[in-house]
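Deliverable D2.4 — example input (structure tokens):
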């Protein structure tokens, strides 16, 4: 069953695009003259990988996302020709046609960077601009050399998959033995330990991101996942071919790459930006999954890039003046559990007053937070007297 998460924004339209008999589920958010199409990543994850970008970008444009075949609400083909790079290009074009997007800004994460290069190079009339995030571009990456030489991966050896179950290393050439169809069948969680936890999101304090990524990955069709994968990369497209393809991209482009990317090192992002002639934004301390782990930095980089494109810029929202000349008022509801956050809230309140000296803050707080706020010179709202206080009840019981 598809894992449903609370959405910060409801889609304005949705449908099922048909591409040679394969149904691709798409959704559109927001409105605007410009359309931004967020390409589906590898079928290991569905369109929810864009969940931090959709509500932000939908404030200024119409945003279209879709689930890759093999995951989400799209069909689950298992034929290799329906899961390769050229099929991914056809799926993107079918979604654009179904959503009524003749020309759009296209963005792709990781594996989607390759079909995005093809779309921009072979269909320039459909691509207004291209945004590559942690994109597949491997002339500077050694792991494909390790990968192509590894007989375990090339042969999809059943015995190797069983033998290595839970024992393949996390680092070095041997780690790519986990990138093995038989290994996925016998120890899929072991593959996720390496690919998601260790390679894609290596940043500390990422438990929520990892929890969701694992849930999305377990919804993928394993046979579709196997069909989407070809050992050694895309057949017939080596380092020279990749550079030649990237150099055919003529539209404005942006390359966003994490400084600590373990799958495609930042050198690949620099080379992609050089070949496409695009802008480069390197995110300090970010790994491969920067779109979900560093969404604020990614969103701001995309926003700044969109401002450089030809066309009318959206007007900046004008703040509403206070009614009847009244001051800006804030009701600060502070939890009574713990006092560490109270010091943080007091610091935020002081910073807000520096920005808006006329700001009035009333604290809705119970004991002991109330006493801390009063000692700091803050004004406590009278309604605080009517709040039920577990702390006061406990103190009364202790006295009795």
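Example output (designed residues):
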């Amino acid at each position: 069953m598809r894992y449903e998460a609370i959405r910060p924004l409801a889609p304005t339209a949705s449908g099922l695009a048909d591409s040679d008999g394969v149904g691709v589920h798409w959704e559109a958010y927001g409105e605007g003259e410009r359309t931004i199409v967020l390409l589906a990543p590898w079928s290991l994850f569905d369109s929810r990988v864009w969940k931090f970008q959709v509500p932000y970008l939908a404030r200024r444009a119409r945003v279209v996302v879709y689930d890759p075949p093999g995951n989400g609400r799209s069909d689950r083909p298992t034929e290799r020709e329906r899961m390769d790079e050229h099929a991914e290009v056809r799926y993107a074009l079918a979604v654009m046609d179904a959503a009524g997007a003749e020309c759009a800004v296209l963005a792709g994460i990781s594996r989607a960077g390759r079909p995005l290069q093809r779309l921009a190079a072979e269909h320039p009339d459909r691509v207004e601009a291209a945004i590559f995030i942690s994109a597949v571009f491997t002339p500077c990456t050694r792991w494909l050399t390790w990968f192509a030489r590894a007989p375990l991966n090339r042969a999809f050896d059943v015995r190797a998959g069983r033998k290595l179950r839970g024992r393949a290393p996390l680092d070095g050439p041997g780690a790519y033995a986990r990138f093995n169809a038989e290994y996925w069948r016998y120890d899929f969680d072991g593959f996720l330990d390496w690919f998601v936890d260790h390679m894609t999101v290596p940043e500390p304090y990422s438990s929520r991101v990892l929890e969701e990524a694992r849930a999305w990955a377990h919804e993928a069709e394993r046979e579709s996942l196997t069909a989407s994968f070809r050992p050694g990369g895309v057949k017939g497209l080596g380092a020279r071919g990749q550079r030649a393809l990237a150099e055919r991209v003529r539209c404005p482009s942006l390359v966003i790459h994490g400084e600590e990317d373990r799958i495609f090192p930042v050198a690949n992002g620099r080379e992609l930006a050089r070949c496409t002639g695009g802008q480069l934004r390197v995110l300090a301390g970010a790994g491969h999954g920067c779109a979900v782990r560093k969404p604020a930095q990614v969103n701001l980089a995309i926003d700044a890039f969109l401002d450089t494109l030809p066309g009318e810029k959206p007007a900046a929202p004008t703040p509403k003046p206070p009614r009847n000349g009244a001051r800006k008022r804030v009701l600060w509801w502070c939890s009574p559990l713990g006092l560490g956050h109270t010091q943080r809230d007091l610091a935020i309140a002081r910073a807000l007053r520096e920005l808006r000296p006329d700001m009035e803050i009333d604290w809705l707080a119970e004991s002991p937070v109330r006493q801390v706020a009063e000692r700091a010179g803050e004004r406590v709202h009278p309604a605080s007297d009517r709040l039920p206080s577990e702390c006061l009840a406990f103190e009364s019981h202790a006295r009795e």
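Confidence is low (pLDDT under 50) at residues 142-158, 231-236, 389-400.
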